[in-house]
Every structure is written in C-alpha cells, then in structure tokens.
Amino acid sequence: MSAPPPVTTPPHSEPSAAARYLVVFVVGLVVGIVLIVVLLRALEGRKTWQDRYPAALMQLYMAQSAQLSADLEANRCAATDTLARLQTLRALSNDLEPAFADLRDHAGFASHASRMRGTLDAALASPPNDCAGLRRTIDAIGEACSGCHQDMRG
To answer: Can you tell me where the transmembrane regions are (predicted)?
Structure first.
C-alpha cells in the first residue's frame, strides 16, 4: 500500500496595502453617510410647527389652486364644484400674517394679504357659474399670488 500523496495547499497571500486602504475608506464613507443622515434628521426633528407653517400654508394654497385648475380643465365649472375650494382658499388667507410673522408688520405684505382676501371675498360673493368666470377667478387669484411673491421675494 502506498501512502496517499500529501495534500498541498496554495500559499496564502496577504492582501495588499491598497486593498486594505480601500476597505477602510469604503467603511469610513458608509459610516460618514449614515452619521450625516442621522444628524440631518435630528436637526429636522427640532423644527416646530411654527418653522413649518409658512411652507405648509403655501403648499395648501398651491394644492387648492391646482384643484381649481383641474376643475376648469375637466369642465367642472359650476359654483357647486368650485365653492368649497374658494372657501378653503379664503380660510387659508386668514393665516397669511400669522404664518409669516416676520412680515406681519411689513406694509407691502399686509397690502398683498388684504388684496388676496378681497379677491377671494369677491369670488365668494359672486361665485363663478361657468368656465369663463372660473378662468377669471383663477387668473385673479394667480395675479394676487404673483404680486406678493414678486414684491416679497425679489
């Protein structure tokens, strides 16, 4: 009986220094990204409703205006279709000064807020009954918004 041939294993080579540095770099990059995300979420979590109020109000304005435009495109222009949106926009208009507390005493801002409420009051006093009237109402609301944005942002 002959002895089985010895099993040879290939020589075990050490990883190169470049490979080790690459692994450390990738791990550091992943840990750094995770820590940045945690930090940003912590900072975002510290915001109160007052910090989010202006952006939320403008988002609601845009959503209601978009719904009015969608009603116009869908040829749903009767007062029964648009009145709820106009009432919501008018209710939101009451919050313009509280939402933008730093602009509350600014004469231009107060004028634009008053103009927006006046535009919506006129639309509610005589709601549009057809698509042409709804188009005029949407345009008037858009002009009131644009005027304020141009003066206050610019």
So the answer is: 20-43
**pLDDT tens digits along 112-145:** 999 999 999 999 999 999 999 999 999 999 999 9
Q: What pLDDT score does 154 carry? A: 62
Give per-residue pLDDT as tens, 69-125. Answer: 999 999 999 999 999 999 999 999 999 999 998 888 899 999 999 999 999 999 999
CA-nearest of 142, 132, 125, 127 to 64 is: 142
Closest CA to 77 of 123, 115, 146: 123
Structure tokens at 94: 């009451």
**Domain 53-153 is of which CATH architecture?**
Up-down Bundle (1.20)
Digit-coded pLDDT (tens) for 38-57? 999 999 889 888 888 999 99
CA distances 65 to 15, 123, 129, Å, are: 63, 13, 17
CB 53 within 8 A of CB 99: yes
Amino acid identity for residue 81 in this structure: D
Between CA 52 and CA 21 the distance in angstroms is 44
Cα separation, 56 vs 95, whole angstroms: 11
